[in-house]
Amino acid sequence: MTEAVKQALLLVPTKPGVYLMKDKDEEIIYVGKAKNLSKRVTQYFMRPQSGKVAAMVFNVDHFETIITKSEKEAFILEMNLIKKHYPRYNILLKDSKHYPYIALKRKNSPVLKIARDDKDKNYFYFGPYPTSMHAYEVISLLNKIFPLQKCKVLPPVPCLYYHLGQCLAPCINKIDEETHVAIYNQIKSFLGGNNEDVKSQIRRKMEEASDNQEYEKAGDYRKTLLAIDHINERQSMEVQDHVDRDIFAYVTRDGYLALALLTFRHGIMLGKEVFVVEQFDEDIDLVTDLILQYYQTHSLPNEIVANIYGLKARIEDIYDINVVYKSRGALYDLVDMATINARQGLDEHFMSARLTDDNLKILTELGNLLNIKTPTHIELFDNSHLQGSSPVGAMVAFINGEPTKKMYRKFHIEGDEKRDDFASMKEVIYRRYKRIKDEDLKMPNLILVDGGLPQLSAAYEALKRLELSIPAFGLYKNDRHQTEGLIDKAGLKYDLQNNKPLFFLLMRMQDEVHRFAITFHHKLRSKAYKASVLDGIEGLGKRRIEILYRNYASINELKKATLEELQQLLPKNVASRVKERLEE
Predict the structure, then answer these.
(1) Quick one: pLDDT at residue 357?
(2) Where is 258: in which H helix or E strand?
């Protein structure tokens, strides 16, 4: 314990707030919250520690505290500081699954789409659903039954669906809010199982079509009836009650904690998730932090059920939600199921995934090897093009050895740099860090470029122009075009073949930036190719080309479109010209 820490401990207040542990370089290495700052912070230095906590305490040179009015304010501040600084010792949840919703637009056009959350107030929401496939099945069915907008982009004239009575034609009609609410109520009632009236109407249409010997149409109606029955069966199989509820349970073993979550919405079990982390804190503190982090990006249920004593007061102080502790009954059986899943998750982690927990140790080795500070924040760059066409740059970020996708960036490369890898890299690096510098954001500890000395030299030229001194290295390849290790600006190579954990971590990073760049490049190439095919067609301007883009994802799909389908999106003469061009 440093002298600065000893003196600071005497002055820590007994109020709620946030504490920031810092190393000798003024870097924040851990952020925590507490109802009683003095009691919480003192525990780190006055108790014997082990493992990751001991490593953190050893690296603390001094700390700061920020007093808040309540523990809730402390939680909000803690989350904001973690998102800003990404301290190396804070446990951050990886991106977990977001169950899909079906969203109905509230104004303008009554159109359905898949949404990953229910935050946008411009939509009504149904769900969530266990999988996207399930949600798309329901959307397809609803579009057959209700007069919803089917076109992704409104055509200039009413389409076939309007003439069949399956669309309200928002392209020519203004749909009032009362109509939206009425459709919402009908869909809500239908999805709630009250669909006998709808089934009767469809059955009557099926019989009429059959009597008129319109057997194909009758077959379509029959498929719709089967789809309704399929959804009813799926819901009746899964419903236990109609409560939105999350079930939590945790287990520990050998310095690791597994927290299992079973998600129920409207009484339907959507699925499970298991989070396995190192025990960096008291069990109740760690579990509380994980649950609070989870609800930062996921919708709250009406009720949380858990076998975790003391959780109720902590969660209810932050969120307006009922937390239930169960020791018997049907809900306890669900908690027991969650416990089994937590134990299974821990078993799987010990068998397969535990190697990833050594990331901090590996990054420390990387820092020692390169003679730089431990690179807890690494940004990697790659460029992609095909003979100069559709050139792009890509950057991915890894925090504590894990990808942080919200920090990923894409770059369009314009001008004379298109065919020049050196100039492209220079442009991308300059643009990235000029913005970081202008906005006074946190710089990375290490920059890696996918390439040898030329790309690395380009990176250093851009950094020099910005007057920045961030360590940068290249990922160099051998004669067989296989990555062997790192290279510095002086040409010194660091062969990593004999350090497999470090080598595999860097390869994982390199694969990710390459994937990100290639995906972006392919998307632009596809769009550029489609544009070139449609170039020069009389009457086909940018707006109409954009309509085609949104309705047909590729040229192959566009080629399959019939003239009648194209005429629903374009004037007849323009549609004919497009069809002729595609047939050429």
Answers:
(1) 54
(2) strand 256-265
Taken as a whole, the chain contains a residue count of 584
Assigned token pair, 382: 């790659």
How far are the Cα atoms of 4, 7, 20, 77, 419 from residue 17, in angstroms, in the given order?
A: 20, 19, 10, 8, 54
Q: How many CB atoms lie within 10 A of CB 95?
A: 11
Where does the pLDDT of residue 47 fall: very low under 50, low under 70, confident under 90, or very high at 90 and above? confident
Does residue 161 carry a pLDDT above 80?
no
Burial of 453 (0-12, 13-18, 19+ CB in 10 A): middle
| Whether residue 128 has a cis bond before it, omega within 30° of 0 | yes
In whole angstroms, what is the distance from residue 169 CA to residue 396 CA?
Answer: 44
Query: Which superfamily does 245-353 belong to?
Result: Ribonuclease H-like superfamily/Ribonuclease H (3.30.420.10)
Residue 303's SS3 state is strand
The rounded percent of the chain whose pLDDT value lies above 70 is 90
Q: Which residues are CB-contacts of 468 (< 8 A; sequence separation ≥ 6)?
A: 433, 437, 443
pLDDT score at 527: 60
- Residue position matching structure tokens 């982009």: 153
Is the alpha carbon torsion for 532, 534, 536, 540 positive or negative?
A: negative
Give the CATH number of domain 535-583; options: 1.10.150, 1.25.40, 3.30.200, 1.10.10.
Answer: 1.10.150
| Whether 323 contacts 308, CB under 8 Å | no
Which superfamily does 3-85 belong to?
A: GIY-YIG endonuclease (3.40.1440.10)
Tokens of residue 448, six digits:
């890696």
Tokens representing 557 are 């799909």
Residues 6+ apart with CB under 8 A from 435: none
Confidence of residue 388 (pLDDT cuts 50, 70, 90): very low
- Provide the 3-class DSSP secondary structure of residue 422: helix
- Between CA 471 and CA 366 the distance in angstroms is 12
Q: The pTM is what?
A: 0.63
- The predicted-structure confidence for 52-62, as pLDDT tens digits, reads as follows 788 888 889 99
SS3 string of 106-152? CCCCCCEEEECCCCCCCEEEECCCCCHHHHHHHHHHHHHHCCCCCCC
What are the pLDDT digits (tens) for 310-338?
888 888 888 888 998 877 777 888 899 99
Specify the 3-state DSSP secondary structure of 368.
Answer: helix
Does residue 298 register a pLDDT over 70?
yes
Alpha-carbon span 72 to 319, nearest angstrom: 8
* Token pair in block for residue 511: 């694969």
Tell whether the model's pLDDT for residue 172 goes beyond 80: no
